[in-house]
Design goal:
heterotrimer; A alpha/beta; B mainly alpha; C mainly alpha; A: alpha/beta; D-Maltodextrin-Binding Protein, domain 2; five-stranded mixed sheet; about 35% helix; about 15% strand; C: mainly alpha; MetI-like fold; two-stranded antiparallel sheet; 13 helices
């Protein structure tokens, strides 16, 4: 028999055998009668975004909800509740009418588009009504700004509630920082090197790396807390990157993966932190409330060549002016100096000649592989605070058990360009949450599943936003929600804090002590021009057509091959008064 | 004139030497790709990280070798139009789609070519002209109208829609069949008439068997094409996913891919995203049938199939 | 005479019965669809597909998208996409067709390893583009680094930015594009009369000159066919972008093709018909360009081409 025929027959047999081994129906009969269910429960279908906050928080929440309602009898003879959930993609408005899911936890939501679509059930009654689960209303836990933005679609009703907050920016490998002493020292006497030209100058001595009391106060200017020793200025940040390289580690890990949505995390986070909460929010609310603060804008950019070292000892060749942003000049936010300095730092990080700052950046690793790169051999990673949930879903800590004990934390970023923050003169962290993650109920629930399921959907949503469940959400998912709540009990509001992982502690610290920019507002310019302001479209950093037939959406593309300058990028981002006047209102 | 394939003798030629090296390098990339697909499909994730290029086990020893990736591909499922579809059903869809579509895509031009070649009516000339014209004239962007047509006729989301869509005669294989039928001497037909055979009998029992090699070759080519095609099922039959669509989804973004074991538990879970090993395991499963067909029918697939008819 | 008339009548009936179903298929699923596509281009559709009226706005939108000024497709600049499609076409002609002809010539001449190479050159036709794209993506992003590490070199991903991405995707199109072309050219070359070749060799012709002055004229009709198909593919070639990136047009970056854009938008079937009227209008505009271009190319090539005589 010819060899190739034997090979062909072998291949056929392998295929047949493998097919025979595969299941044809799922265990339990496919769709019902699963673990612990009698098959006679009323079913509530919950759509949960894959990744993000993960599945664990919802599975545990639904188990508790099912236990609470296990003896409830419904009019159709059903007893008990079965909450069906599965990881899904970010749902589009157009999918809602035909969907048989009733409750949604998803991301990438333009709240006004969704609220005005008629496809969401009004939930004003459960938001403003007192919940039987914690004797308070959900509205009492929302800030006034958030309430105004959520009701902006018709001025009267709530349709959505904030789901997870994902803080963009950097996570740092705390175990590596601790073991290598990547912390700045307050006094010269405690410096690792006294020669200013040495990369180790300014960093703690190896013998004192565990002693937190010798560290600088960090960006917030408060001694003895979570950010001591971390870089408080871009000047210090540059020195940190050089020191990390000198020690043989890679400063950054980042998944590029042919879109800009990961490298942009550092860019967004740095901008809001340099600008501060009010100035960053002016990007969306145009300071309509007339708050009394000024924003430094760049009126002109001169030609400038950055030095090879000590780039951030200077501010670049710019002319600035202090302005108060209002509804007449809001287009000037695109000229904020904080954006200009952010672009300078982006050029430093992404420029070709500096490409050895990156690990994983060029290698084409996907997001979960980049997380492994980070844990193995990088100091910092450009990611959102959901990354540990992704790593869990990808079985990273099962495949690489040696990585499970590595401590990581969200990294508070510099608050100024030059110098170093001194005690009492820092700023609390400002972070940004661009994921637009929200929970809502499908308007078709009563039509598709009946009035009782509609009531059940509302009850489940209210349950998920009770105090206990909010705390459980943070404990399970390492992430927070944009509501006021504690993670302990009445006697000790932070009682669970010490039991949290270092990463969860770091995100809770930011929520507690910092400010979170939620890029939504009730202003008509914001509501009626979603393509200009909706954060997940990244229009904030969008230039005109510079890159082939596309608009540049993020600095990494512009600077990676050195083809564009900061001046070109910044000038191309600017908006005009005509643009502002032409917006729909 | 002899048109046989005798060997041409040249002195050593730098031209062919360089060309041979280039083709050799190209061949090396193709062979490497197949090798990489095979070895990666059997590696664990840590093994792949430690040893991306060589045989499984050379990084982390026996712990680096696994069949789990293959098992996972077979035990996962795709959610299409709200229904969980498992691998055996996708294989069934693929076989029906590939074989059925290939059969009609081959039969229809064959039959039309027979009528155009053997029946010397003026309309036969028009049929030939239509084929040539349609092949030359590109019409772009008719997908929305096709979807509308299928929905209006109730064919959308049905496997039979592929038979209808692809079962047309306006393709180059019409020309291949046409030339083949033209090459069949009239003597066969006339002898059959003398014996009292009907037109149908002449077509089915006399003429068609003479071009069975071409028919079978084109059928195979179409089968391989449709087995690998994920775009037509994606657009027109989304509720009946094929293996090609499943492997493509597995390889790119894994949206709608779930672990089969968790279906029915009230919270079905997705497999770990984006691992190269899982992608290669999926690619291996998809490549095995076509490679098998290639091994079995290599000579037919690569035979001299030109618009001048079958040779040798 | 009666039996002849009856036989002719039966023959005609058989002919009509035989061609009717394929013709009906052609009329419904080609002619009607083309007309419906043109009609849809002038329609205003709601999300459910109900025709609300007729308009030329879809065509206005098409021209706006070409200029990058559309409000419906804000971030799409189709003139740039057209430019990239044309670049792909010229690269395919220059490198792809040349390689096809050269490789086919090597096989036709039965040079060293031709049987093995014939098999290998056909493998891209057998393996799915999904399979080849996954392996290729690994090698140009991560694999080069892993291979470089063997030699102590630090090599980064070849797909650094949108331009390099575009270049390497074109390379993929060429790399995975062998198969049918080689088969066709080799078949046609094997039809060249041996006597002509032998006579030229006796006159001392070099292999390269033989390729140019004898082989090329002989395979010119096949060459013209492939050229015409390539010209049409300016508007339909997806460059396998959907296989690589799916509907995520953003991931493609600054370079893509018209074929990919059309398919990705059509495949974004989210239940709303309103966008499809614009797509149909785009298809009509592109067809109005493609048809004369293709016919003109065919005429030109046939006019200027060499003749065997």
């Amino acid at each position: 028999m010819k060899k190739r025929n034997i090979l062909a027959i072998l291949l056929c047999l392998v295929m047949l055998f493998a097919t025979a081994c595969a299941p044809t129906t799922p265990p339990g009969g496919g769709g019902g009668g699963g673990t612990g269910y009698t098959g006679n429960e009323i079913e509530l279908r919950v759509w949960n975004i894959g990744g993000g906050a993960g599945q664990k928080w919802l599975i545990e929440a639904k188990n508790r909800f099912e236990a609470l309602h296990k003896d409830d009898v419904f009019s159709n003879g059903k007893v008990g509740v079965k909450v069906y959930t599965e990881p899904k993609h970010a749902v589009a408005v157009s999918e809602l009418a035909d969907s048989d899911f009733s409750v949604f936890f998803t991301e990438g939501v333009d709240i006004n588009l969704y609220a005005k679509s008629g496809k969401l059930l009004p939930i004003t009654d459960i938001v403003e009504g007192v919940s039987t689960y914690d004797n308070k209303s959900i509205a009492s836990k929302l800030s006034n700004e958030t309430k105004a933005a959520l009701k902006a679609s018709d001025g009267a009703n709530y349709y959505l509630l904030p789901h997870y907050q994902s803080f963009e920016g950097l996570s740092y490998n705390k175990s590596l920082f601790d073991s290598m002493g990547f912390y700045f020292a307050e006094d010269v006497a405690n410096y690792q090197a006294t020669n200013e030209t040495s990369p180790a100058y300014g960093f703690v001595k190896q013998s004192l790396k565990a002693d937190k009391s010798v560290r600088t106060v960090g960006p917030n200017g408060i001694r003895g807390d979570y950010d001591d020793g971390l870089p408080s200025s871009l000047e210090e940040f540059e020195r940190l990157c050089n020191y990390i390289k000198q020690k043989g580690y890679s400063p950054f890990a980042c998944w590029d993966a042919f879109n800009h949505s990961y490298s942009i995390k550092l860019v967004n986070a740095l901008w809001v932190n340099l600008e501060g909460y009010d100035g960053a929010m002016a990007q969306y609310n145009f300071n309509a409330e007339g708050k009394n603060f000024t924003t430094k804008i760049v009126t002109s950019v001169g030609e400038y060549t950055a030095p090879t070292k000590g780039i951030f000892k200077e501010l670049g060749n710019i002319t600035t002016q202090d302005v108060t942003i209002n509804k007449d000049n809001a287009y000037l936010v695109y000229q904020q100096e904080s954006k200009y300095q952010t672009l300078r730092f982006a050029e430093y990080v992404f420029k070709q000649s500096n490409n050895n700052l990156h690990q994983g950046f060029w290698q084409g690793h996907n997001n979960t592989e980049t997380q492994v790169d980070f844990l193995y051999e990088s100091a910092m990673m450009m990611e959102g605070t959901y990354w540990r949930n992704e790593a869990e879903d990808a079985y990273t800590f099962v495949n690489y058990p040696e990585l499970a004990d590595i401590e990581t934390a969200y990294m508070p970023l510099p608050v100024q360009v030059t110098g170093s923050v001194t005690e009492g003169y820092g700023k609390a962290p400002t972070v940004i949450d661009i994921h637009s993650a929200y929970g809502f109920i499908n308007a078709n629930v009563e039509e598709k599943h009946g009035a009782e399921v509609a009531e059940l959907a509302k009850e489940f949503l209210q349950f998920c936003y009770s105090d206990v469940e909010l705390a459980e959400f943070t404990r399970n998912s390492t992430m927070c929600r944009d509501l006021t709540y504690t993670i302990g009990d009445a006697t000790d509001p932070d009682s669970v804090y010490s039991a949290l992982s270092s990463y969860s502690q770091s995100t809770w610290d930011i929520k507690k002590y910092g400010k979170v920019v939620n890029p939504i507002s009730a202003e008509p310019e914001y509501i009626n021009n979603p393509g200009e302001f909706h954060m997940t479209d990244q229009h904030i950093w969008q230039t005109e057509f510079l890159d082939g037939n596309a608009k540049l959406k993020a600095p990494d593309v512009a600077f990676r091959n050195g083809g564009y300058t900061v001046k070109q990028y910044f000038d191309s981002m600017k908006k005009s008064a005509d643009w502002w006047d032409a917006l729909a209102r | 004139m002899k048109n046989n394939e005798t060997k041409m003798k040249h002195k050593f030629s730098p031209f062919y030497c360089v060309l041979g090296i280039v083709i050799g390098l190209y061949s090396a990339t193709i062979i490497s790709s197949i090798y990489f697909m095979f070895v990666t499909a059997f590696k664990t994730q840590p093994e792949f990280r430690a040893n991306p290029l060589w045989l499984p086990g050379m990084g982390r020893g026996i712990a680096g070798l696994t069949f789990n990736n293959i098992t996972e591909v077979f035990t996962c499922c795709l959610k299409a139009d709200g229904i969980f579809v498992f691998v055996p059903e996708m294989i069934y869809n693929s076989i029906i789609y590939s074989f059925g579509t290939a059969f009609f895509a081959t039969l229809v031009p064959c039959v039309m070519a027979y009528f155009a070649a053997k029946f010397e009516y003026k309309f036969s000339g028009l049929i030939y002209a239509i084929v040539v014209a349609v092949m030359i004239i590109p019409v772009v962007g008719t997908m929305p109208a096709t979807i509308r047509m299928l929905k209006n006729t109730g064919l959308y989301n049905k496997l039979v829609s592929a038979f209808v869509l692809k079962g047309n005669f306006v393709n180059m294989y019409f020309l291949v069949f046409y030339a083949s039928f033209k090459g069949v001497p009239k003597d066969y037909t006339e002898a059959a008439y003398v014996d009292g055979a009907s037109e149908l009998r002449i077509m089915v029992n006399v003429i068609m068997p003479l071009i069975r090699n071409a028919f079978f070759t084109i059928l195979l080519i179409f089968f391989v094409d449709f087995w690998n095609d994920y775009q037509t099922p994606l657009l027109y039959i989304p509720a009946k996913p094929t293996i090609a669509r499943y492997i493509r989804t597995l390889s790119t973004d894994m949206v709608n891919v779930y672990k089969g074991a968790t279906i029915g538990t009230g919270s079905p879970q997705a497999p770990a995203k984006g691992s190269m090993q899982l992608q290669m395991a999926g690619c291996l499963i998809m490549a095995v049938p076509t490679l098998t067909i290639f091994c079995l029918f290599r000579n037919k697939l690569m035979g001299n199939l030109s618009m001048g008819g079958i040779k040798g | 005479m009666n039996s002849i008339e009856r036989k002719n009548k039966n023959k005609l009936i058989f002919y009509i019965c035989g061609i009717s179903i394929p013709l009906l298929q052609f009329l419904f699923f080609y002619v009607f669809i083309v007309f419906d596509s043109i009609l849809m281009a002038f329609q205003v559709l709601d999300e459910q597909g109900t025709v609300l009226g007729f308009t030329v706005n879809n065509f206005v939108e098409v021209f706006k998208v070409f200029l990058g000024k559309s409000t419906v497709e804000k971030d799409i600049y189709l003139l740039g996409v057209l430019k990239d499609s044309i670049i792909l076409f010229f690269v395919s002609i220059l490198f792809g067709s040349t390689a096809n002809i050269l490789f086919s010539n090597y096989l036709y001449k039965k040079k060293a390893g031709h049987k093995f190479f014939q098999i290998v050159l056909f493998i891209p036709q057998i393996l799915s583009a999904v399979v080849m794209s996954r392996v290729y993506m690994y090698f140009v992003t991560q694999g080069v680094g892993d291979i470089g590490a063997l030699f102590g070199l630090k090599i980064f991903s070849l797909m650094k930015d949108s331009l390099s991405k575009f270049i390497w995707l074109i390379v993929f199109s060429l790399w995975s594009g062998f198969g049918a072309g080689v088969l066709m050219y080799t078949s046609t070359m094997s039809g060249i009369p041996v006597e002509v070749v032998e006579s030229a060799q006796l006159d001392g012709i070099t292999p390269f000159k033989e390729l140019i002055f004898i082989t090329m004229p002989m395979i010119y009709p096949t060459f013209v066919t492939f050229m015409v198909v390539n010209v049409a593919s300016i508007f339909t070639n997806q460059m396998h972008l959907y296989t690589f990136y799916g509907q995520n047009i953003d991931s493609v970056g600054g370079h893509s093709t018209l074929g990919y854009y059309l398919f990705a938008r059509a495949a974004m079937w989210d239940g709303s018909w309103d966008k499809y009227a614009y797509l149909s209008a785009l298809g009509v505009v592109l067809s109005l360009v493609a048809i004369p271009l293709t016919l003109g190319t065919k005429k030109l090539l046939e006019k200027v081409g060499p003749s065997f005589e």
